[in-house]
Each structure stands twice: as C-alpha cells, then as structure tokens.
Amino acid sequence: MLSHEDQIVAAIRQIIRAIDLHSRRLVNGHGMTGPQLAVLQEVLRIGPTPPSTLARAVHLSQATVTGILQRLERRELIIRQPSPDDGRSVLISISPAGRAMLECSPSLLQDRFRDNLSGLADWERLQILATLQRVAHLMEAEHLDASPHLTSGEISQQADSNRAAADPASADSPRQSHDDRAE
C-alpha cells in the first residue's frame, strides 16, 4: 500500500500529466500551443490592442508575446495595423482566419477547470485553495510567477531569475527557457 506521501506525489504527477496531454492535443490537433490560443482569445476579447497591453492581459513577458504574435501573424490569424493615435505603434487585431480558428479550437484546460470549480460549494473551493497553497509552500514554489495559463515544460528564465533572487545559492543550477516550447 502506498504511503500518503506517495499518493500525494502521484496526484501531483497526474495533474502535471493532464496539463502536458492537453498541451500536446492542442498542438497536434490545432497547431497551436496554450499560450498562442490564450493570446488569440484575448485579442478577440479586448479588440485592437497594443502588444504591451496584450502581454499584461495574458500575464506573459513582452518578449514571449512578441514571438507568439510573429507566429500568429505568419499563419494570418492576427493583423498588425498602425495605431491611428500614434503612427509609431501598432495595434493587434484578430483576422477572419483567427476567428475561424477560435470557433473550432477547444477551450483552454484552465477554462474548463475553472467552470468545474465554480460548480463546487464555497467551502470546497476554500479547502482546495488552502491545500494547494500549502502544497506550493511545501514545494518551495510560493515565489514563482503564477501565470494564469497552464503550460508544461522547463521553467522560464524569469521564473529562474525570481528563484535566484529568492535563493542566491540556487543561481548556479542551469535551466533552459521554455518560452519557445510554451509558445
């Protein structure tokens, strides 16, 4: 029989695996990653917007969003237009092909998860929150960026910088960026 500790670790692995499988299905079935889909959904939601505003809205770095926008533009899913207020800046809007892509793409894993959570009683949501916050603390992950988009892969350089600032001794352990994989 597995110890409680082993069962907890197994449950965490199941969560990580679910995120990874959803990400792979999204890429294999629709040619988009979770962050790409999130950016496209946000462009549709807020309308024409500067890339910096979009980056803040999806809680990703401006550099990551720039890469995502380049990929979406190559696929003609977004349109870059000069801002009518400032010709030096651009506004990002969704193209007809982008709208069509969103109509046939699945929801993000966190959207379905959030819907399922909303069906729980308040006490159940609070219990889950307290438990997960405690798990994050036990994993010494409370200082990591909590991006609202569920993606798998290596930690980003920003998260690595946050970790190094919190624990200078850990700065010596090399990590690779997952920006390309997360896009």
From TrEMBL:
Keyword Transcription regulation: yes
Signal peptide start and end residues: none
Ranges of residues in domain HTH marR-type: 5-137
Region of interest called Disordered, as start-end residue ranges on this chain: 147-183
Low complexity compositional bias, start-end: 158-174
Keywords: DNA-binding, Transcription, Transcription regulation
SMART domains named in the record: HTH_MARR
One annotated GO molecular function: DNA binding
A Pfam match: MarR
GO biological process, alphabetically ordered: response to stress
PANTHER family to which the protein is assigned, alphabetical: MARR FAMILY REGULATORY PROTEIN, TRANSCRIPTIONAL REGULATOR, MARR FAMILY
Protein name in UniProt: MarR family transcriptional regulator
